[in-house]
């Protein structure tokens, strides 16, 4: 790891030094210059690699799990996404976990709570619902729902519904890494529904308005459910008045209406629209991202490699990786849902961004 | 002003003291005990009185002003509301100004800016619009629009429209009292429309979402227009899941989506629904309020006096006045728009509230 | 009030309009154009005038009050400062009240609380103390102490002390104007000392450190006392490393250590040093200021008028008045204590500042 | 990893499932229930172990490095502390790096910048200084200095000084883990001293005061140096008025005077005093801590194991480890400096704390 650059470690091994290093080991110590260039890289090099998970590949395996295990035995019946560079911590990218969960009509998972923050993005089915601290919310395709850190939560599918599949997103690897993860099973295994169905959506899901008497002191959004209908309408309206980002098209962040900031303290989420025929330019920035294609078809070029995607496919962009997106249709818009660790990166002062300068901003691939 | 209570001033005038007081006057000084009980009251006693301004009374006079003065001569053609206790500062209540402005199709007022914060609530007509710092917004009945402190703004009615009347609300008296009011006429007398019509509504008027790349550093809301349609829908949904406030029924605050706080630094605004047959209990609190009836009919009892109102009527509730509201209909809801100085009161630590304890919470009247 | 400027009201009285105005009065209304130019001035014109209160003039009168009234009868034995333009609201400038309070050894004032925020700056004597919510603090000359809004507080002089005089500063006129002032006499007339003497100074008066477990949720500073010794030392050190402000010399704000912001929500306070021979340039800004000369002698030029001052003199600078300061000594520094309504002005977005452009920045006088 | 508890994964391997698992691997996926109990522990189990690094052991080795490598070759001449459980990431505990750096009189390290936040705590010597973004600060024993993320910084020892040793603390492992570390060598290899020596200490190191015109918008403290003298005085004063924490004695946090919050966004620092004879009770909480003994001698019991320490010794407490401290002297106080990742833990909502309930709060050891 020697570098012949002033200001960097460049020490040749000698017998005397090697003896010295062994001495240091006895005292749980080492010489910084033997690791300095490794632990202080010029710029980040992610351990994660870009991956595309095709729904056509995964769906049948997800459905097969229904026959293979019960929710009771499995805890939760989930197929999780394993980044080749992050298998050790069961992450899909960086410190973010993701998986596909499936439930049959009438099934319900036991209620639990954990320090990790969690979200769900509904992929297919009918009759899914989530209960968060007593607030029950029915969920449909492309709905986005939070189960924030510390909340009791459980999922189910109404007996009258259809088999449901959704994507889970959590920061379990991060909270584990921070050595701060706690887990609890609800003493009654399931919660009572303590409020009118969809009450937090009714109270907090209005544009430019908030309930007057409702004091909310939690650090996450009181709006737990973000429905697809109003979200797509919002993007469509915003598209009428904005040129959009050169890197991301028409992009909106899901926010905590109490603060205007991210929905949870450790996970942010975004929906973006690539207009018909739109192709964005490449940039890179710190932070790890997992995308699900909510609508349409297209492709992303990540660190020079092209990934073609269509509705329900999932892919990831590691930290500091070049990425650009294209809509493959010239008549229909395409929409990408994504979640990320940007609240961590931003809050802690670790955000940095760079535009791709060559080739008019487009990577070669 | 003597009070025979320990801890209060209770000094009898004597010739010696009177001579002493005259001495002090020569040095621009006085004896505190001669004014202490007056300037330190046990509780607030507002200089304002409750007033109901009936639209039936005012409308014809407002329309008559069209014949009497031109916008050019008048600056703005407005009939303002004069609280009998606040004539000196031209306030409708406390330090809040309000007036009814009228414009004919094709008319446009000259663009200006001031340190006072302003808002408009549309009462009738067709084709009204406001331009704020280059952002143009068409306005319909019950739409609420901001023209924040320091912004260039102007109002007009499209040539194809109908005569329009709206209520203005400003904190001119307050900013004057703070000796901080500046006024400027736009150098070109009118602004260019610099953005797509309704662009801030498209960008910031979505529930639970905000434009991803848009950094907003101003201290007022980037959402300038709050439309009646979504506002009424929001109240109707919220009504399904809340018991409501005992004092205010189903109430929502208009908010700055960037902060979740008030729309401007000195003026807050609220829309509340009194459900069919609803009658609220009385409370009082610091802060001055001006209401406009957006929908329905009913009454308010303010410091023991009943005021019957219907759509478009305006009334005020002075600081620390008991007040309660009733919907006169058993089948239709009623909606009250209001604006207030609560951001000032709250930010500065001056809020206090009290429920009416007697008679099961209802004032006698 | 007519102005022949486009965008300003310029309507001639006619018999028809006069009749119209009378009609409007019947409905508690008026025509805006009759008052618009008055209530929307081009820039602020303060109702206050600059005043210098010489301690040589006031001291004997203050001491004489000891013979004339008892604290029991007077409530508090205070000579207050009366700005000729603000007699109606008993203000020394703008909405700020100030007075000189005197107490003999062994005297104690009854404990009370009010919504107004208060401060004290000690002028002379020995043995003075203040108790705030059970925290007792001995006070010496040039010490600055807070009795924030809503706190129980009382003052006294130890029996072993000397007669003490201090300056009171409050926002009573402002809180009255906001119709939000409440007053209460302590049920026991005096408080028990519930903590070690000077405990908040010990906990919160350290540079760059705060007590680790102490959660402070009040909106005012937990550090109630700011001692002269460390304050003068701080200014002296800062003077070594700063060029200082062209308008104010070496100036530091007293702050709430929990937030780095002003000591109370409605009143800010400042200590500034004019170095030997220093003469500052003129500027003006919104906000009202009351100064006390803590050390040295010099002069201030306020709106073109020169005021010569020395230690213990008090003077005021009204909002938007030009002002500049000079140290009359070429060998000793001079220090000015001041308090102001800048937290109100700043929090509400009403601050504006302008440098004096002519004559190299110095007013003629 | 099976657990026979409802709500936990408890699936037996079968040939069919094993085949299924192999299928999933082909698609970069896995079955959650095979890893769920591992990645969702009931409570944190730190990878770090408690370690005591005795200065008597390390000092000679640190000094020997002066002969073995030059600062030019080494980059920085540092012996770093290697937690047996965290060798892979060169951390002393959790995600925190620490090392002992030595410099001879006249030596100077090249200036650089990195995304990691850094601090120094001076152990011995004379003439040490640090330059941060052009601000030079002389440093003595027990002084604490910041070199925040993104700042240019360099260290040196005056030619007239003595060999200096200090402890470095950084979050390099954390910023690496977040894949957000950037490193740059200063183009001139050293900075010009652009301000008066100690200027930020003069401006920001005062109790309850801040420079009036100095707007500071960075997210870290503008006060870079916290001197031992005022720090020890602060603790001594605070000790007079507080009972102290049952777990930590008399403890104060170093703070950013602009916000009252932690000195940097990712690293907090604390100085605590154990009074003569004081023995604290045990608690545990999330967050990783590295201590240096600034004064005195005593012991800490960490997860049941006793570590005896004296001045200059260093030890660590891993996340969620029980710990308690004792002063071994009945006549002298002992002081512990520590730094930690609490700003990360706290900002992200991951703090949890628990008192040791048995044995009157004391661990057996």
UniProtKB/TrEMBL annotation, chains A, B, C, D:
<dbReference type="InterPro" id="IPR047183">
    <property type="entry name" value="GDO-like"/>
</dbReference>
<dbReference type="InterPro" id="IPR014710">
    <property type="entry name" value="RmlC-like_jellyroll"/>
</dbReference>
<dbReference type="InterPro" id="IPR013096">
    <property type="entry name" value="Cupin_2"/>
</dbReference>
<keyword id="KW-0223">Dioxygenase</keyword>
<keyword id="KW-0560">Oxidoreductase</keyword>
<dbReference type="Pfam" id="PF07883">
    <property type="entry name" value="Cupin_2"/>
</dbReference>
<feature type="domain" description="Cupin type-2">
    <location>
        <begin position="100"/>
        <end position="166"/>
    </location>
</feature>
<dbReference type="GO" id="GO:0051213">
    <property type="term" value="F:dioxygenase activity"/>
</dbReference>
<dbReference type="InterPro" id="IPR011051">
    <property type="entry name" value="RmlC_Cupin_sf"/>
</dbReference>
<feature type="domain" description="Cupin type-2">
    <location>
        <begin position="272"/>
        <end position="336"/>
    </location>
</feature>
<protein>
    <submittedName>
        <fullName>Cupin domain-containing protein</fullName>
    </submittedName>
</protein>
């Amino acid at each position: 790891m020697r570098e012949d650059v002033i200001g960097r470690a460049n020490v040749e091994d000698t017998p005397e030094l090697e003896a010295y290093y062994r001495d240091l080991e006895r005292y749980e110590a080492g010489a910084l210059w033997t690791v300095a260039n490794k632990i202080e890289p010029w710029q980040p090099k992610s351990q994660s690699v870009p991956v595309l998970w095709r729904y056509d590949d995964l769906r049948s395996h997800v459905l097969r799990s229904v026959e293979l295990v019960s929710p009771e035995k499995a805890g939760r019946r989930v197929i999780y996404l394993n980044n080749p560079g992050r298998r050790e911590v069961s992450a899909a990218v960086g410190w973010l976990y993701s998986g596909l969960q499936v439930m049959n009509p009438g099934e319900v998972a036991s209620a639990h709570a954990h320090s990790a923050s969690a979200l769900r993005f509904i992929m297919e089915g009918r009759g899914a619902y989530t209960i968060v601290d007593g607030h029950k919310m029915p969920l449909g395709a492309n709905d986005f729902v939070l189960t924030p850190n510390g909340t009791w939560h459980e999922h189910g599918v109404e007996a009258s519904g259809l088999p449901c599949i959704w994507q889970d997103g959590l920061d379990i690897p991060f909270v584990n890494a921070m050595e701060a993860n706690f887990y609890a099973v609800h003493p009654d295994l399931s919660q009572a529904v303590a409020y009118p169905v969809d009450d937090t959506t009714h109270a907090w899901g209005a544009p430019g308005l908030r309930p007057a008497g409702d004091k909310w002191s939690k650090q996450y959004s009181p709006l737990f459910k973000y429905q697809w209908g109003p979200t797509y309408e919002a993007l469509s309206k915003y598209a009428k008045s904005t040129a959009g980002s050169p890197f991301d098209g028409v992009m909106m962040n899901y926010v905590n209406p109490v603060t205007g900031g991210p929905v949870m303290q450790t996970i942010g989420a975004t929906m973006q629209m690539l207009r018909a025929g739109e192709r964005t330019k490449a940039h890179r920035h710190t932070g790890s991202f997992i995308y699900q294609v909510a609508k349409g078809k297209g492709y992303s070029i990540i660190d020079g490699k092209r990934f073609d995607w269509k509705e329900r496919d999932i892919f990831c962009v590691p930290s500091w990786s070049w990425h650009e997106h294209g809509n493959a249709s010239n008549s229909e818009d395409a929409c990408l849902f994504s979640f990320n660790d940007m609240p961590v990166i931003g809050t802690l002062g670790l955000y940095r961004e760079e535009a791709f300068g060559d080739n008019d901003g487009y990577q070669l691939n």
